Amino acid sequence: MDKSLIRNFCIVAHIDHGKSTLADRIIEKTGLLTAREMQEQVLDNMELERERGITIKSQAVRTVYKANDGKEYIFNLIDTPGHVDFNYEVSRSLAACDGAILVVDAAQGVEAQTLANVYLALDHNLDVFPVINKIDLPSAEPQRVKDEIEDVIGIEAQDAPLISAKNGIGIDEVLEAIVNKIPAPSGDETAPLQALIFDSLYDSYKGVIVFVRVMNGTVKKGTKIKMMATGASEEVVEVGIFGAGRFIPCEELSAGMVGYITASIKTLSETEVGDTVTEADNPCAEPLPGYKKVQPVVYCGVYPADSAKYEDLKEALEKLQLNDASLFYEPETSLALGFGFRCGFLGLLHLDIIQERLEREYDLDLVTTAPSVVYKVYKTDGTVIDLTNPSNLPDPSEIEYMEEPIVNAEIMVTKDFVGSIMELCQQRRGRYISMEYIEAGRALIKYELPLNEIIYDFFDALKSRSRGYASFDYDLKGYEKSSLVKLDILINKEQVDALSFIVHSDSAYERGRRMCEKLKDEIPRHLFEIPIQACVGGRVIARETVKAMRKDVLAKCYGGDITRKKKLLEKQKEGKKRMRQVGSVEIPQSAFMSVLKLDDDN
Amino acid sequence: MNNNTSELYIHIPFCVKKCLYCDFLSFASDDKVKEKYIDALCEELMFIGKERCNTSLSSVFIGGGTPSVLPAELIVRVMECVKENFTLNGEAEVTIECNPGTVDEEKMRAYFGCGINRISFGLQSVHDEELKKLGRIHTFNDFLNSYDAAVKAGFTNINVDLMSDIPGQSVDSWNRTLKTICELKPAPTHISAYSLIVEEGTPFADMAEEGKLDIPDEDTDREMYHMTSKILSEYGYERYEISNYAKEGHECRHNLGYWTGVTYYGAGLGAASYYEGCRFTNTSELPVYMDDPIDSFKLDEKLTNADRMSEYMILGLRLTKGVSITEFKERFCRNLSDVYGREIERFKAEGLLAEEDDMLHLTEQGLDLANFVMQAFI
Question: pTM for this one?
C-alpha cells in the first residue's frame, strides 16, 4: 500500500456545528472501493458480510476519492465521540489520525467545545484545517469567524473552504483540502508491529472486533498478536477495512492503514482502547504513548423497581458490558432498596445512556440512587480507600482526611452573562483561574470546579443562566484535599442508606435542608407523623415533618360515580405497590432520585 | 335490601349556568332542545319498562343538571311516562333535584300532583358571597322562597345540600350555615353536607392550578368537618353515610340502594345503570343520545364475584352502620374473615375499623380516611 495515497483524519466541531452532516457529504461524494479492489471482487465478501448481518457502528469509515491530480486516495474518516464523558476515547481516536478538519458555524463562531477539541487535536500533533459551515444562513459572518479562528485559536483560516454541508455547497473544495492539507501517514512496514486500538466491539459471531491504526509493521491472517497492556495474546483470524457500514476483509494491514482485526478474542476487557497491538514473537520496543486504564468517574446504585427482577437486571448489565467495557458493576445490597448493583460510568451522559438502554431495550423499571464521584479516603492507619458508595464511608474517627476530584472547566459565554456564570461557579465552590475576552464581546472563563458540584445539574444551570448561550467543557485535573462530610437522611428516625451522600461541609446545611423539603413533598402522608431529618455525624442539621394523614375520603359516590371512583382507588393502590418499605414508612421510588433535583428552583 | 325491587334514575342535563366546581354532565340549552330531549327520554323509559316487564320500583330520582329548569309540564310528562311503564311501589320515594330560584309554588304543586314526594335543594351556603364564589345563580333569599313554596305545596320530605371548604369560608360561616338550615321551620328531613372536591376539568381546577383558589387550610377543613356531625346531631340528624345526615326514618332510600348493591336503571344522557352484575353508561353526547336514546349505551364493566365482594365492602363501608358480616356470607357463601381477614385485622389494630355485633364499620377516624381503608378491599 502506497502510504502517500492515504489520509487519516477526523472532524472536530462544537455540538451542532455540522460535524456529522459534513461526514455524510464526504462519504456520499467519494467511492467505496478503488478500481483495483473492484476487480478483485471484494464485493463477494461483502455479500457474505451482509448475510451475516454485521454492520459497523460507524466509528470509522474508509472511502476512495479520485482527486484533481488524477490519483485515487484512501480516506479513513475516524469518528470521535462528542461528549466530555468520553474524552479519553476522543484522545485515542485523535491519536489514530494524522490531521483534522475543524468545522465552525459561520454564525456562532468559536465555542467552548471548538476550542477544547482543537487543542486536543493540536496536542496530538494533528494538522488542523478549518472549514466554515452554514455559510448560507442569513446570519452567517464568514469573515468575522475566520478572524476569530485566527485570533482565538491561532491557526491560518483565510483560505478556509466556505461550505454548507446541509446543502452540499463547497464539498469538493473540502475533499481537495483533505488531500493537500492533511499529511500522509509515516511509519515503517518492515518494523515490528505497533498498532493503536481506538475502539472495539463485540460480535457474537466473530468475537471482539478490534479497530486499529497501524503505526509500524504489518499484520495479516495468522499473525500472532499481543495486547501490550492487558497481555492478551491470540492468532489473527481476519483483517480488513471499514466500508461504509461493512467490514471488508483484506490481505494485510500495514503501517499507515486503518482497519480491523479479529482473533477469537472473547471479551472487550482484553482489548482496551489506547492499548498497543504488537507481534507476540517480535514485539516492538515500546507501546504507543497515551494509554490509560479507563476508570469510572461517576457511580450510582441501580436497583430493580420490582425486586423479583434482580436476575433480569444482572443479565442486562452483562450484555451491555459485552459492548461497553467502560461500564462497571458489582452487586450491592441496600437496606432500603434490597439487592442491586453499584455501577460505574464515565460521566453523567454515560450513566443516562446506560440507564435508558436498561429501561428501553431490556424493559426494566429501575430505581437509581444519587450519582456520586469517587472520593479518596485517607485513613488513620495509612491506607487509602476509593469511595464509590457513600454508605461505605468509614467512621469519622478512622479518617485522616479526604480528597475529591477537581476538573478544569472552560466556559465560553457572551459578556452579558459573565456575571451570573461566575456567580454560579462561585456557588459551586469554583476556583477562579482566568478570564479573557475574545473577539465580539465573548469571554472564555476558566475555573477549577469540584466534580461533585457539576455532575448533577451544572449544565442545566449554566444553560438557564445564559439563556442557552454558554458552552462548557471540562477535563479531570486531579484530586484535592477537601472538607467533606457524609450527609445521612433519617426517615421516621431510621437511617435510609440509599439516601446518604457526600457533600462539602460548607454546603451540608443547605443541601440537607433542601433534601428534607424535597422528601417532604415526595413521601405520602401516613397514619402517623413522619419526621425527616438530615444528619451529619449523628447531629441533626435540618428537619421537616410529613404530617399525619387526616383526610382521604371521597365526599360523593352515587350510582354514576362507582366505576370511576373504583378506578381512582385502584390507581392509589397501584401507586402504593411501587413504594419501598423502610421501617414502617412507605417511600416512593422517585424519592431516591430527589437529590438530583435539589436545584430545581434556580 | 329487597332484591326484587329496583331503582330508577332520570338525568336532566340542563342548567341555567354551570357552577365553577361542577363536574356533572350539564349545560345550558334552549327550550326546543329541552322538549326534544324529553321526547327521547320518554322513548328510553318506555323501552326500559317494556324490556324489564314493568319492573317494580322502590325509588325514582330525577337529578341533573337542574331538573327544575324545565317547564313543569315536561317533568309531569316524564312522571306520567314512568307511571305508565313501571310499577311504583306504594311507598316509593320519588325525588327531584331543584335549584333555588328556579321553582315557584305552582311548579311545586305540579311536582306534588304528579307523584313526586321528595325535594332535594342544592343550596350549598346561606351566605350570598360564598354562593357567588361557587358561581351559583341564586341568593339565600331565593332559597327561602323556594323552600317555602315546597312546603306550601305539601312536601314534607326535603333535603338540603350544603358545602364546606368553599373558598373564603370560615369555621364561623359554616357553623352559621348549618344552624340556619337546621332551624328552618319546618326543618328539612335530610341534609347532605359535602366538602368541596376540586374535580379535574372544572374552572376551580384551573384556578387551583394558578393558585387563585383560596380554599380553607387543613386545620380549618378538619374543624368544619368534625363540627358538621356534632352540630347536626344536636339538631336530631344522624350521620348515616360519609356525607349524609337524616332525621330518623328519612335516609335517602334511593342513595342507600347505590351503597347496598341494588339494581338500578338510568335513563337520560350519561346515566348509569347496574343490573345483572353489569354496569352500563349512556352516551354523554347529546346529539347521539337524541338520535337513538335506546341504543347509545356502553358496557363499563361486568362484575366478577370478587368485584362484587369488593364493591360490597367499599360501598357498604360508606354507611356509618357498616357492612353486615352475616349478609356477606349469605350473599357470597364465604366468610368475610376468610376473604379480607388480614386487612380487617390491620385496620382494627390501627383504629380505623371496628366491629359491633354483626356489623363491621369505619370508626370516626376511619370515616376521615375512608379511601385509605377502601383501597385494601379493591
Answer: 0.70
Name the E strands within A85-236: 99-105, 127-133, 194-203, 207-216, 218-220, 224-227, 233-235
Question: How far is Cα A257 from Cα B341, in angstroms, rounded to an integer?
Answer: 76
Give the three cell numbers for residue A486: 457524609
Asked if A529 is an interface residue toward chain B (Cβ–Cβ < 8 A), one would say no
Judging contacts by C-beta atoms under 8 Å, the chain A residues touching residue B264 are 559
Find which of A528, A545, A562, A584 to mutate to test the B interface (most B CBs within 10 Å of its CB): A562
In chain B, what are the domains? 5-259 (3.20.20.70), 306-378 (1.10.10.920)
Q: pLDDT per residue over B323-361, tens digit each? A: 999 999 999 999 999 999 999 999 999 999 999 999 999
Burial A2-26 (b: 16+ CB within 10 A, else e): ebebbbbbbbbbbeebbbebbbebb
Integer Cα distance of A458 and A485 in angstroms: 21
Q: What is the DSSP string of A355-417?
A: HHHHHHTS---EEEPPPEEPEEEEETTS-EEEE-SGGGPPPGGGEEEEEEEEEEEEEEEEGGG
Integer CA distances (angstroms), A198 to A78, A207, A215, B358, in order: 9, 17, 12, 78
Closest CA to A523 of A576, A446, A470: A576
Give me B215's grid cell.
380554599
How far apart CA A411 and CA B46 sit, in angstroms, is 78
Give the mean model confidence (pLDDT) for residues A460-471.
Answer: 79
* Secondary structure (H, E, C), A189-223: CCCCCEEEEEEEEEECCCEEEEEEEEEECEEECCC
pLDDT digits (tens, 9 = 90+) for B166-194: 999 999 999 999 999 999 999 999 999 99
Contacts of A41 (CB under 8 A, 6+ apart): none
Cα(A59)–Cα(A57) distance, integer angstroms: 6
Q: What is the pLDDT of residue A494?
A: 93
Give B36's strand partners.
Answer: none
Instruction: Provide CB contacts within 8 A for B260, sequence distance 6+.
Output: B1, B315, B316, B319
CB A99 within 8 A of CB A181: yes
- CA A33/CA A3 separation, integer angstroms: 17
How confident is the model at residue A382, as a pLDDT?
Answer: 94
Closest CB from A550, A554, A576 relative to B218: A550
Are the C-beta atoms of residues A409 and A384 closer than 8 Å to each other? Answer: no
* A308–chain B Cβ distance below 8 A for any pair: no
| Nearest partner of A247 among A47, A64, A55, A43, judged by Cα | A55
Residue A133 DSSP symbol? E
Cis peptide before B65 (omega within 30 of 0): yes
Q: Kindly list the residues from chain B whose CB atom is less than 8 angstroms away from the CB atom of residue A562.
A: 258, 272, 274, 279, 311, 315
Closest CA to B333 of B355, B318, B312: B312
Q: Which residue of B has its CA nearest to A574?
A: B375
- Asked if residue A267 lies in contact with residue A312, where contact means CB atoms within 8 angstroms, the answer is no
pLDDT digits (tens, 9 = 90+) for A231-274: 989 999 999 998 866 788 999 999 999 999 999 888 888 888 89
Interface pTM (ipTM) of the complex? 0.90
Beta strands in chain B (DSSP E): 6-12, 56-64, 87-98, 118-124, 158-164, 190-195, 238-241, 244-246, 263-267, 272-275, 278-282, 297-302, 323-324, 353-356, 359-362
Cross-chain CB nearest to B318 (options A527, A557, A572): A557
Interface residues of B toward A, Cβ cutoff 8 Å, are 9, 194-197, 218, 221-222, 225, 242-243, 255, 258-259, 264, 266, 270-272, 274, 279, 281, 300-301, 311, 314-315, 318, 350, 352, 367-372, 374-376, 378
Residue type, A45: N
Sequence-ordered strand ranges (E) for A137-275: 194-203, 207-216, 218-220, 224-227, 233-235, 238-243, 246-250, 252-254, 258-262
Longest dimension (CA), chain B: 59
